[in-house]
């Protein structure tokens, strides 16, 4: 069996905390205190993260409308931290963009947005101010360029090596 190491410090010393709703043990690192999921028995990512529904059916429009308050809250935070001259269009990378809802919302708010989703995006999109890509970061690096803001909403807890991901994204800031 593969040895389980802490995603932050690499320690092999950890203790059981509880079992998640979907049956995975949640563990706490004895060295740094990080709490993480023991996903060694999880199915492959393409089975865990199916493609999001991106159609414009009435039910999908209702779901998007219900999420709009949440998206406005996120957008407000991003606008506060974005620092660009008033004559420039701010660029945003939304890593792990899921369905692309936040990326699309920010494009409508005047940002030049790239949404990058390695697993569950559905159909890629390329329209004015918005590009949605479904590919791993290492395959998209040459297409990305520089950004004023990078967001990762509910992403790090799903990544096997979060520190490596943050280091890989840093050159794009």
Written description of the protein model:
- With 173 residues, the chain is α/β, with parallel strands linked by helices.
- 30% of the residues lie in helices and 20% in strands.
- The protein has five helices and eight strands, in the order βββααβαβββαβα.
- It has a five-stranded mixed beta sheet with strand order 6-7-5-4-8, sandwiched between helices. It has a three-stranded antiparallel beta sheet with strand order 1-2-3, with no helix packed on it.
- The relative contact order is 0.13.
- The model has no long low-confidence stretch (mean pLDDT 86).
Defining key terms:
173 residues; alpha/beta; 5-stranded mixed beta sheet; 3-stranded antiparallel beta sheet; 5 helices; 30% helix; 20% strand
Cα distance spanning the termini: 38 Å
Radius of gyration: 18 Å
The biggest beta sheet is recorded as: 5 strands, mixed
Global structural class: alpha/beta
Q: How would you describe the shape?
A: globular
Lateral arrangement of strands in the main beta sheet: 6-7-5-4-8
- How big a fraction of the residues is strand? 15-25%
Number of helices: 5
The overall pLDDT, averaged over residues, is 86
Spans with pLDDT under 50 lasting ≥5 residues? none
Order of helices and strands: EEEHHEHEEEHEH
- Please bin the fraction of helical residues: 25-40%
Number of DSSP E strands: 8
């Amino acid at each position: 069996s593969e040895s389980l190491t802490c995603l932050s410090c690499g320690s092999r010393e950890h203790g059981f905390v509880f079992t998640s709703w979907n049956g995975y043990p949640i563990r706490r690192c004895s060295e740094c205190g990080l709490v993480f999921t023991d996903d060694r028995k999880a199915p492959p990512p393409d089975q865990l993260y199916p493609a999001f529904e991106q159609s414009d059916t009435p039910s999908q429009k209702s779901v998007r409308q219900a999420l709009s308050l949440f998206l406005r809250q996120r957008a407000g935070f991003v606008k506060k931290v974005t620092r660009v001259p008033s004559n420039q269009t701010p660029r945003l990378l939304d890593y792990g963009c899921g369905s692309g809802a936040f990326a699309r919302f920010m494009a409508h708010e005047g940002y030049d947005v790239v949404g990058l989703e390695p697993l569950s995006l559905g159909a890629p999109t390329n329209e004015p101010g918005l590009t949605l890509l479904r590919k791993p970061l290492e395959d998209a690096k040459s297409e990305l360029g520089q950004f004023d803001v990078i967001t990762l909403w509910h992403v790090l807890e799903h990544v096997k090596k979060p520190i490596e991901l943050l280091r890989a994204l840093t050159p794009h800031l």
